[in-house]
Write a structure and sequence with these properties.
By secondary structure, the chain is α/β, with parallel strands linked by helices. It has a single domain, classed as 3-Layer(aba) Sandwich (Rossmann fold), CATH 3.40.50.800. It is 28% helix and 21% strand. It contains 5 helices and 7 strands; from the N terminus they run ββαβαβαββααβ. It has a 7-stranded mixed sheet. The protein is globular.
Length: 141
């Protein structure tokens, strides 16, 4: 796990970042465990957990852009993520901030794999959001 602050550069890695911006780390370890646990079919999100408590999403995306090449998705653990039962992670398009949506932690592997590979478009996931605005489709499991 990597710790950063608003003044620190986000690590440049060839996969997605899972970044805690929530001030509290309560349930952070649980979220990381869920996201990094392989499904029964061998799928797992390819993420680097990073801690940046107090950083805004805009500051985070700016820091990611300064770090050089990045994956298309940035996964954000904010207060809503860590307080809801299914840990709905904020999924942010590193190129277009307005394309964001939420995804249940146990379905994040499908979003990670399909958006970063270009297999599915952001629109697909927006169309699959539940009534509460969270994507829970484990079809790819």
């Amino acid at each position: 796990m990597t710790d950063v602050s608003a003044e620190t550069t986000i690590p440049a890695v060839p996969y997605s970042l899972l970044v805690r911006v929530a001030p509290s780390d309560e349930r952070w370890d649980e979220l990381v465990h869920v996201v990094e646990t392989e499904t029964e079919h061998g799928f797992v999100a390819n993420v680097l957990p990073v801690e940046a408590p107090g950083m805004s999403v805009d500051e985070l995306i700016d820091a990611v852009r300064r770090s050089g090449p990045w994956s298309r998705c940035v996964f954000v653990a904010d207060e809503r993520t860590l307080s809801a039962p299914d840990l709905p992670v904020l999924v942010v398009d590193g190129m277009r901030r307005e394309a964001s949506f939420r995804c249940a932690a146990d379905s994040l592997f499908a979003v990670d794999a399909n958006l970063n590979s270009g297999n599915l478009a952001w629109q697909y996931f927006h169309e699959k959001l539940g009534p509460d605005g969270v994507h829970r489709d484990r079809y790819w499991a």
